[in-house]
Amino acid sequence: MSSLDKTIEQLRAALSASPDNIALRQHLAETLLQAGYGEEAEAQFRDALKLSPGSTELLIGLANCYFQQSKNSHAMVIVEDLISSRDTPAAAHLLHARLLIRRNDIKFAVAEYEQAIDMDESLRDEALENHLGIAPDDESTSNEELVDGRLRAGGAAGSPIDASEKPTIDFTGVGGMDELKEEIRLKIIYPLQHVDMYEAYGKTIGGGIMMYGPPGCGKTHLARATAGEINADFISVGINEVLDMWIGQSEHNLHEYFETARRRSPCVLFFDEVDALGASRTDMRTSAGRQMINQFLAELDGAQSSNEGVLVLAATNAPWSVDSAFRRPGRFDRILFVPPPDSPARAAITRIMLKGKPCDNVDHEMAAQKMEGFSGADIMAVVDLTIEEKLQIAMKKGRPEPITTRDIIAAAKSLKPSTREWFASARNYARFANASGLYDDVLKYLGEA
Ligand SMILES: Nc1ncnc2c1ncn2[C@@H]1O[C@H](COP(=O)(O)OP(=O)(O)OP(=O)(O)O)[C@@H](O)[C@H]1O
Ligand SMILES: [Mg+2]
After folding, report:
1. Which has the minimum average pLDDT: 29-43, 44-58, 93-107, 198-212?
2. What are phi and psi of 33, to 5 degrees?
3. CB half-sphere exposure, 444, CA atoms < 13 A
């Protein structure tokens, strides 16, 4: 029996005599942990926490048990909680650093490790420093550089986000939406192209556009075309993809997207489903959503790095769920309603979608009139169906048959517009939650303004 095991035995005996002695239980738990009995240590820390709920020392002990047993997310929950509190103990930063290493976030780990030893020099750990690439006695090289060196060498860094594309469509590929296109030009394209002019008039550059409206009406399509219009890169970020069960990781992911966009400028950075930010997360801690929003706002404000050349667009079907802090000047200060296409726009969309297909004098205007309430996506479905039926006939006859106006109208009749449902819920918000006139355009569209 090792001396540690002997100590454990004695502590157990002592504890059975006075089970409410917290200090004793904590000592036993710590010794168990030290001896590598993670599971038993965990049980003891839990019991001790029942006697002294919220004790920082016990919480760190418990987190260390989790860490030892590779229950990383459990450990992270505790650590993140401790870090967000006022008097964060150095040990929490140290454990955070270790957890970040497991997650390959070396840069953040270095910062947390340094924070820990700043607060408590005795926590210095040479093995950990080696792992982090920190040379303790070499003041000539900053840690920042060392970490970057690792990154450049393809070391243990989080994988860079490579989600950018060069769109092949521009505004000519977007039917209708003339007002929206003009808004986008004025608000974000011209400022990018004529920086001097805007500066001469003292007009500040920055801020983004948020689009909202029923599904399938071209929000994403228009965002992509905006990038194509100025030959910029396009990065589409689904907020749900950014959200991560790891606390702190969501913010990190978001930061990476902004950083990628800054490197790729000029670049359109498009956030889809921004409402997901406000929605309750399946996370273990409610404040996590708040932190993510704060991170987003800091990035938007360019608090740490300039957003020059980064055009920020966002889209949502549920603008009422979007945090109002997003709407402040310099952020998403233009909120635009993207309605279902009107009749001329539907004609334009049909024309775009049938381009290059065998057609027989199609009357696009007439077809468009038969598609009241159809979204762009609905029109796409109509065109798909038309083509499918035409193909079947062509197969039977053994020769291609051109598409006619009647074919399109017949297909449209068999499909239903998908935008009604959205308006059913939007109507209520527009009527009863329209304090700042945010939904005036919706009311106008509904003929209620
Ligand atoms: N104005 C338009 N011109 C040309 N095509 C359009 C237009 N609007 C929509 N479309 C077509 O409809 C499809 C669906 O549109 P899109 O994905 O942009 O809708 P959305 O508003 O982003 O919908 P969601 O809210 O569901 O994300 C697009 O892929 C595009 O092909
Ligand atoms: Mg979309």
Report:
1. 198-212
2. -65, -45
3. 9
Ligand 2 geometric centre to CA of 180 (Å): 15
Residue 171 has pLDDT above 90, yes or no: yes
Q: Whose CA is nearest to atom 24 of ligand 1?
A: 215
Identify the nearest ligand to the CA of 340 by its number: 1
Q: Which atom of ligand 1 is nearest to the CA of 177?
A: 1
Q: How far apart are CA 65 and CA 59, in angstroms?
A: 10
Span from the CA of 41 to the centroid of ligand 1 (angstroms)? 56
For a pocket test of ligand 1, which of 220, 229, 337 has the largest count of ligand atoms closer than 8 A to its C-beta? 220
Q: Which of 211, 212, 221 has most ligand 1 atoms within 8 Å of CB, for mutation?
A: 221
Q: Model pTM?
A: 0.65
Q: Which residue has the higher pLDDT, 201 or 442?
A: 442
The CATH T-level fold of domain 3-152 is 1.25.40
Residue 174, ligand 1, Cβ within 6 A: yes
Buried b (16+ CB within 10 A) or exposed e, 339-349: bbbebebbbbb
Position 147 scores a pLDDT of 38
Q: Of 222, 140, 127, 148, whose CA–CA distance to 181 is shortest?
A: 222
Q: Which atom of ligand 1 is nearest to the CA of 338?
A: 21
- CATH, domain 164-337, list 3.40.50.300, 1.10.287.3510, 3.30.930.10, 3.40.50.620: 3.40.50.300
Q: Which CATH code for domain 343-413?
A: 1.10.8.60
State which ligand 1 atom lies nearest to the alpha carbon of 176: 1
Could you tell me the two tokens for 209?
Answer: 């556009």
Q: What is the dihedral of CA 29, 34, 39, 45, to 10 degrees?
A: 20
For the Cβ of 180 lying below 6 angstroms from any atom of ligand 1, the answer is no
pLDDT at 220 > cutoff 60: yes
Ligand 1 atom nearest to 352, measured from its CA: 4
> Where along the chain do its domains lie?
3-152, 164-337, 343-413
